[in-house]
Amino acid sequence: MKKIISLAPGRTCLFGDHQDYLGLPVIACAINRKIQLTAVENGLQVFNIDKPDINQKRTISIHEDFGHIEQGDHLMHALKVLKRYNCVPNKGYDIEIKGDLPINAGTSSSSAVVVSWVNFLIEAFGIDTEVTPELISQLSYESEVLEQKAPGGKMDQYSIGLGNIVFIETGDDFSFEVINQPLQGIIIGESGIPKETVGLLGELREKAKLAIHAVKSKIEDFDIKTAKRKNLEEYLGHVPDHLKGYLYAAVVNHDITQRALSEFKKTEPDFQRIGRLMNEHHDILKNILKITVPRIDDMIEGALNAGAYGAKIVGSGGGGSIVALAPKGKELQVVEGIKEAGGINAYEVSVDTGARILEST
Fold this sequence. Notes:
Blueprint: E1 3-15, E2 26-41, E3 46-51, E4 56-61, H1 74-84, E5 93-99, H2 109-125, H3 133-146, H4 155-162, E6 165-169, E7 175-179, E8 186-190, H5 198-216, H6 232-236, H7 244-264, H8 271-287, H9 294-305, E9 310-314, E10 321-325, H10 331-340, E11 345-349, E12 356-360
Parallel strand pairs: 3-5
Antiparallel strand pairs: 1-2, 1-12, 2-5, 2-6, 3-4, 6-7, 8-10, 8-11, 9-10
Helix pairs in contact: 1-2, 1-3, 2-3, 2-4, 3-4, 5-7, 7-8, 9-10
């Protein structure tokens, strides 16, 4: 019986939260916490799927007609998308999906499940196109976002699929650049408070787009992708008061991401400077977009007081996790600082190489 093991790491966002749904760039990195999908051919016409981490089991026929798929059923949506590419199941598997990624914590556990599933399906049943990390990422994005008309961008699927540290231009002129730069001292802190995703993302996206539209109605050639921080005062003069913060956040966070990219691309990056830029980014997420909660704020303060170069909330907000950058030798100190400030867990992670098939026999 054929056996396939498909692994997909989680991700953390270093720069660019609440930017990708505006087509603006992000800097993210895959982390060595993972989802692992183990599939063994069963001689049947079904996928028997076991998710022991959440005590959930289900069975999917390989002959599903996809008449009605519920929002959020990522496995079924992926099967529907891949069928269009002539990746069609012709045999069943017993499948276990588990991992050490925290759930609903801003480290993209759901996207990691999707990427591991897409990679498994292509390995098991083939596809009518060349298989690359970009293809796995794109099909995962189509399954999780486009097919379900969800509000997210491409950051999660591409950072997981490509691995490493990656700068992603997320707009219509989509592109990416893998940053082959070692980065030590990455600390993840879990708040234990479930993050908000669809509702919060949708609300902030719509308000930001309204603010951008207000400027475009007065400045015909205005483009958020080329907007300059030095011209903010002019832009804000065309925006209603209740939307000014959303435009400010979009322009300034874009500027911060570009400055961080310049630092990462240096032969010897100044990680203290990268930490300060993380702090700038977090300040906007906290005080302008207001996506933090008191425990997250306490954890950020705990990390910085323990010596972290910088720290910020990760993901959609309302809870979830933080990422901190610790100096060499102070990693454990920062971990303890986050826990003492109320984090339910904190740990050092390293940069992962991305989604991959570990075994196919």
